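Title: [Solved] serine--tRNA ligase 3D structure

Original question kept below for reference.
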Amino acid sequence: MKKCFLFRREQEVEQLRGERNAVANKMKGKLEPSERQKLIEEGKNLKEKLATLEEDLLRLTDELQQEAQCIPNMTHPDVPIGDEDCSILRKMVGRPHGFGYTVKDHLELGKELDLFDFDAAAEVSGSKFYYLKNEAVMLEMALVNWTLSEVMKRGFTPLTTPEIVRASVVEKCGFQPRAENTQVYNIAGSDQCLIGTAEIPLGALHMDSILSESSLPLKYVAYSHCFRTEAGAAGAATRGLYRVHQFSKVEMFVLCKPEDSDSYLEELIGIEEDLFTALGFHFKTLDMSSADLGAPAFRKYDVEAWMPGLGRYGEISSASNCTDYQSRRLGIRYRPELSPMNQKKAKNTPTQFVHTLNATACAVPRMIICLLENYQQEDGSVIIPEPLRPFMGGIESITYKSR
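Solution (posted by the thread starter after getting help):
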């Protein structure tokens, strides 16, 4: 029904704009004063009516957009139907480290090794914020730089992104900044939001564009800070670095032809699995159930790593194929290329929407949890995995500070 009202309003607005332009054209000619005054009054009335209708059109468009956001993507035929418990194990890598002593969680290790300060951050910013200190700072930089270098070897173009975007862009990417339990921070007095993932500015990079077929796939890897309200998150399972309001992340993003998106999802999850294997993590990959996909995802794989201090698996990454769900809203298309003999028809070739995919290569806080808890030693020190040592200035372990 609203769509009909919207279409009617669009017609009315276009009609009034035409009448306004016609009056403006008449005003350009030589006119009697009385006739000119009459046109001035007519133009003024049209302007007022048009302003009212345009405001109504914006309201209807916004309401329709909000309703459209409630419609999720389709799901892959192989996606397990049901709650999160219905997710299917895709792959299991490694096994838990054996400890002949009582293990500590990352909070205890961080306190003893002087790596975090949650108390000061709570005073400065509130709960679920933190300061990283000493080797933890170097560990964050090492994780980011090592991940970027590894992903770039796979043909990804590195980017840093804006961390403030328009609310309309957030919505077009499939997130709901105005929902009651939104995870998005809105900036008061503006139409802007803080990003919860670099997926959002990466998705909007080619907004309202027609790409050439030869330019596809476009593969990006971006470093950014991310901000999430974590509304409703509480309990022991979310304490420490596991669920925080601000963190650093390295995100992969692909734009490709529709027929290629399934294979690029496999490529993305393969890259994630290679990265976590290189760091010596014990983890499992899950083909997530329909209830856990979120609105944009057609299919999603999650990676859960073993965190011995927490005594459970925790999600450290995911990879999603969003098909054309985001590109339709963002207006990202490509024009299929014809053979040389048919180049004259190229401009008339219908465009198609690209498919978009995203995958987290490194969510820094949870990677730090895994590293500290899995590489802790009996004397309380923590070994740095070999791949990260060149990015740590040669530091091989984190030890107690001299008092």
